Amino acid sequence: MAMKIRLARGGSKKRPHYSIVATDSRMPRDGRFIEKLGTYNPLLAKDSEDRVKMDMERVQHWLDKGAQPTDRIQRMLEAAGVLTKKTRSNPNKAKPGKKAEERAEEKAAKAAAAAEAAAAPAEEPAEESAE
């Protein structure tokens, strides 16, 4: 049985509240779970102690038994100091999308055209004053 430590959503529409649960990975997100390990309330301030509450003994017990935490739970456990921080590398995340690249190219072309136009009229009035 593949075990997961993950979030199960509760609360009403636009007012989420999550339970941190140990469950079989084949069960639905909000479905049957084996044990409730804590709570997570994303509506509270990030520095609030009540935002994430976990029973660390039970979490460690499930990790020792081979339960795999989801990405979000892994970050919470890293912040709590239970797991070592994993290096994440997503170099494509910082790159702008196609539309943004096209807009940047258009902006650069307009700036270059404006610079050329600004340089060209400065020479023409000198010729007119000579007449």
Automatic annotation (TrEMBL):
Biased composition (Basic and acidic residues): 98-109
Region span, Disordered: 80-131
SUPFAM superfamilies reported for this sequence: Ribosomal protein S16
Cellular component per GO, a single term: ribosome
Pfam family, one: Ribosomal_S16
Keywords assigned: Ribonucleoprotein, Ribosomal protein
Annotated Low complexity bias: 110-123
Gene3D superfamilies noted in UniProt: 3.30.1320.10
Entry superkingdom: Bacteria
PANTHER family: 30S RIBOSOMAL PROTEIN S16 (PTHR12919), SMALL RIBOSOMAL SUBUNIT PROTEIN BS16M (PTHR12919:SF20)
Stored HAMAP family: Ribosomal_bS16
Stated family: Belongs to the bacterial ribosomal protein bS16 family.
Name used for this protein in its record: Small ribosomal subunit protein bS16
Organism: Psychromarinibacter halotolerans
